[in-house]
Fold each of these.
Amino acid sequence: MTPDTSTAHGRIGTKSLGAVAIRFCGDSGDGMQLTGGQFTNASALFGNDIATFPDFPAEIRAPRGSTYGVSGFQVQFASTEIYTPGDAVNALVAMNPAGFKTNISDVEPGGIVIVNEDEFAKGNFRKCGYEDGYNPLEDDELNRRYQIFKVPMSRLTRESLADMGMGAKDIDRCRNMYALGIVYWLYDRRIETTVDFLNEYFGKQKNQPQIAEINVRALKAGYYFGETAELFPVRYHVAPAKLKAGKYRKISGNEATVLGFVTAAAKAGKKLFYASYPITPASEIIHGLARLKHYGVMTFQAEDEIGAVCAAIGAAFAGDFALCGTSGPGLALKAEAIGLAVMFELPLVVIDVQRAGPATGMPTKTEQADLLQAMFGRPSESPCVIVAPRSPSDCFDMAVEAFRLAVHCMCPVLFLSDGYLANGAEPWLLPDLDAIHPIEVNHPTETNNPEGPYLPYKRDPETLARPWVIPGTSGLEHRIGGLEKQDVTGNISYDPDNHEHMVRTRAAKVLKAAQIIPPLEVRGPDSGDVLLLGWGGTYGAITTAGDELRRRGHSVSTAHLRYINPFPSNLGDVLSRFNTIIIPELNLGQLRMLIRDRFLIDVIGINEVRGKMFQVDALVKKTLEIMTNRSASVCDRRLNSMP
């Protein structure tokens, strides 16, 4: 948080900053997601570029005050374009000791820490595992390392609302708004956006106007406390960002996914059918789609994962745009039915919002460990197209691409999102819908075999896709099922040569999709020492790390795969132009394995499975270590080869 300029305003200085990362944390009932979301909205409307990441507790009912129940929300807002919610936290707002304990290590040295002093009591210290007699607010080392500001938020909130005639429980729920008011003042944000939100949100609910009023009063009380208490020696200002001109909105990955698939159906003139079984972090997708039934969207909550995917296959057979969604454990349960869709050769899209596993694992944390499952996690040879959005807003574009490819290839497409993208948010430049190319769908109405039965597996010679016939079309009746098909006729066949032909044809059909996939783009030099290659949600961290390494004078480029099966047709050429390929992944090296197998080249992995996104500083450091070690190894080989 390096200041650009400093000015005086009375006895309080004002510093202009390029970017700030703030984290709100507290118990899961303290309203941290609402607080962080409102600060994000205010910053977005102010004109800053933003990137957020909410951090939810995995326990459904963790004991209050325990570290297991801590909920957090981080937002970075900036005057320049940014790609991540930030590494080190510049300012932490901790509503209780558990939030303080689990998050304080992420605060930068000299960073701001604002705590609700009233919650820092012996009972709460015991709940979060502090030793008896220890108070972190009295720790000399912590006070030297951070700027800790103790604010009795609970007491001040109660005092500001004492004349409202409300119960203590309702008043205490407003502490998050008091904290938000303080932070609004500290970072020069306008409170009107949140005032309007509170009045509208609670005004729509029966007998809730008074709830809106006490929250608004708490927000204003916190803001005026920051203004009058003279607790903070400096206020901070982050100027609006100079982004591409246009109309923006804040959007999360799951929200963009919803809008993208609805747009895809509209571009094809199709109804969208979505089937799912609730699972974190994909559940918000069915909530979002259910609210859009006026756009012809049909949603179905099945009794289990298998029922959901089979219902979607039925919708695809009937001629609708068929979609189902899940996370890693659910994708495993859908495996056999996805293989059925491979055999049917129907356009089905399966969303996998990846999370940390295996089994239940850490269901609210992020990971990228389903890639090999998406590639190979079905019986026999069952190739599918795989796409992976790189940012929350990119989920919209790749959703449209997923259905475009599903129809083009007449096969299942797996859409690999992840918890980091699904829950994170950023500004989204609203697209020109007219500029999005229509998705061409052709349902035959005439037979392709006038001299005999219809031929359901007579393929397009360019794409190898079979026709998509609407059931009941006169004269186009045909057999369909899970048994192997005879080439062209679709009859059941146990012929060994036919089976091998069909297996190879289905695989070739997927590979042919590379003809309509855009080439891989490289950020930085087109060739050189190092290429950082990534996929999925690591885009922001990898891109920022690459920019920083080039700023330091290193020959490092970055590229990001949004199409994984098939790969972009120029990937091999791109890889050949760099001396060292490094792949950072939130797994133990799954893309690295695929790249080594396909291109027979050495690839170095940077791998983490901590349920968290890469820190940019850590990526920079590890990349430099690899570059140093490779350079030393080359020198050693040259010395050993000398006579």
Note: The two ends are 54 Å apart (CA to CA).
Amino acid sequence: MRDLRAQVERLLPRVERPARYIDGEWGAVRGREATHRTVLIYPDTYEIGQANQGLAILYERLNAAEGHVAERAYVPWLDMSAEMRAAGVPLFSLESCSAVADFDVVGITLPYELTVTNVLETLDLAAIPLRSADRTEGDPIVLGGGPCAYNPEPVAPFFDAILLGEGEDALLEIVTAHAEARAEGCSRAEALVRLAAVPGVYVPALYAPGSDGRMAPIASAGAPARIVKRALADLGAYPAPRCPVVPYMDVVHDRLTVEVLRGCTRGCRFCQAGMVYRPVRERTADDIVRDVMAGLACTGYEEVSLTSLSSTDHSQLEEVLRRLSMRLDGSGVSISLPSLRVDAFSVSMARLVSGGRKSGLTFAPEAGTQRLRDVINKNVSEDDLLSTVTRAFSEGWRRVKLYFMIGLPTETDDDIRGIGELVTRVLAVTREAVPPADRGSIRIGVSVSTFVPKAHTPFQWDGQIPAEEIARRQEVLRSAMPRKGVDLKWHDADVSFLEGVIARGGREVADAIEAAWRSGARFDAWTERFDLGVWLAAFAEAGLDPAAIASRSFARDEALPWAHLSSGVSDSYLWRERERAVSGTTTPDCSFDGCTGCDACGELGVDIVLGGEARGGG
């Protein structure tokens, strides 16, 4: 261990940002005695991965368990990986500078489709065989999880096991099952069968395509035919990390984060997170205030973010903000909310957390016309947006950012031009709401992403629009946008295309991912590193047509690549929502208007929890 640390230290003077690779941060867990060791890896650089809230929660959870220890590792940047390969230095953990391959379990989160080549870079730098089938008794178990686990098939051959859903309880069950299997002298294959018996765990090696094309368990494996995600019944049983790791260097979202609720039932039909994280479970106001104050006292942060998919939906948010404002008055600590609803309540909440500062507000109308907002079940109107923005600018705000999408099902050019028309009206009301002398300070940011149909959503049966059509619609948008006072940005069409291929593909895509990595694809989520040509060559080498994968539409009874996995929301509900989308019929939010029949509560045995009280659902 000391020898490996010395080898790493010799490389640091030759690389950028050496703080990425050193240990000793405040809050890191070091020196624990353990019989079973797990390393948690985010497949990107330290400054991106250190901010990941999910890994921070699991890190604290494992390190609180007797006999277990968790450490962290990240993907070295290109300069460091080259130096490591040249010097024969394997990928190492931060806390003990141990080789990743020496851990019992290597847990890699799957946050975004374009990090898949970094998964292979991680395994190769660790000297772990890329594919599960090639690993031997001496290799660690490679475990995946996270947002992209809801269609893991494109990366399934690279993982021994994949957790579907929430990990606070499940991860401890997984590492305990592995530790027990190892203590009993089980072989690697036998240990994987043990892991497949843990609810929510998918072991790809135990499954193969059936006669109908669906992935099905191999007869002798005894694995479940259908894997249902894990979900916590009581979010309040797990406080937010009280003393999270505080980095030495600047990282993204460098602040204390406290999760105030989990799940969202707004029902946006394009949103995978809104479907797969159901049902809504809130932390109580008392718990949130307690965790914020404890975290600030331990870390010394000067900003706290109250995080969730929709923080302003929390039933006690106003109470939380008022209590925190009183507790933090005069401390210099600011409170932030990651996103706001398009309503007047959001402006009131923004005023409570602003502390007199008027930075910027962010809203997501998603579509430019009411017709298309009804299709996607975005239950906001143009009047909602205009009145909210008017109120905000009359109260001192001068910047607003608006998020839209193009490529949504049923979209027409009129819908795209509607984005420009809506932005024009927003610009007009902001100018009317401020004194003439302030009009030059108004800034309207418009960010436009391309819709990618994701697994376990009502649009999972729909194909993505072709890359050339994405580019054409972006030009329609550009021509419709006001020329002055608006900063327009959109996602690269090629990036969105590749995201669609990986999001919608099956296990066959793994060959292309490996070919792309072997041809130099790394850090594809970084604009300067993305090269579609490398990927197209990789798909050709694998004998695949990526455009056909991304744009393919599925019939109702066709086998989806992810059909063997369940988020708890039934396919019958998702199909019903798709039919309502086509007819332009909206569906209310079940947290406030009663059960809409998504079946998540019943399937998962978990109730909606608002204000600390459980409310049963369908």
Note: The chain has three domains: 2-228, 255-339+588-618, 354-508+544-570.
